[in-house]
Design a protein that fits this description.
The protein has helices at residues 2-16, 117-142, and strands spanning 20-27, 38-41, 44-55, 58-66, 76-81, 88-93, 108-113. By secondary structure, it is of the alpha/beta class. A 7-stranded mixed beta barrel has the order 1-4-3-2-6-5-7.
């Protein structure tokens, strides 16, 4: 009986000291996003995905955000590639100014997909290659 009482007390203590707050995030494409996927701000972990649900035709992720991290009503959320292997994370971009978000509202933020830096680099290389090929074709036609 004492063991059960001790387990209940410890459980109650941990539930009262939860250091996270909940944000709901609508995700268009959850490929590569799972429970425990990191939520980052300027490269630092500030939370994680707790649960992903399908509600109607929407995918809703429940994020657990550290209590000491500030979210604004106009904060932006992006799915980013963390590395060349394709690991994903949710990145928060906070504005310079804004109204602090009231976590009691449980509003749903919209998540966008942000191309990885190497994807942008490849796109630049392809565009540069096309420009060089166009220049060669023009040069050959002038000769």
């Amino acid at each position: 009986m004492k063991n059960i009482f001790l387990v209940l007390c410890v459980s109650l203590l941990f539930s009262c000291t939860n250091s996270n707050r909940i944000i709901l995030l609508e995700i268009e494409d959850a490929s590569g996003i799972f429970n425990d996927t990191e939520v980052v701000f300027k490269g630092q972990k500030v939370g994680k995905i707790n649960e992903i649900k399908i509600t109607g035709n929407k995918i809703i992720a429940e994020l657990l955000i550290q209590k000491n991290f500030t979210i604004f009503t106009n904060s932006e959320f992006f799915i980013i590639s963390k590395d060349i292997l394709g690991s994903k994370a949710i990145e928060i971009i906070n504005p310079d100014k804004g109204e602090k978000y009231n976590f009691n509202n449980l509003d749903t933020f919209i998540c966008k997909t942000k191309p990885a830096q190497y994807e942008l680099l490849f796109k630049d290389i392809i565009n540069t290659s096309k420009a060089i090929m166009d220049t060669i074709v023009i040069y050959d036609s002038i000769k």
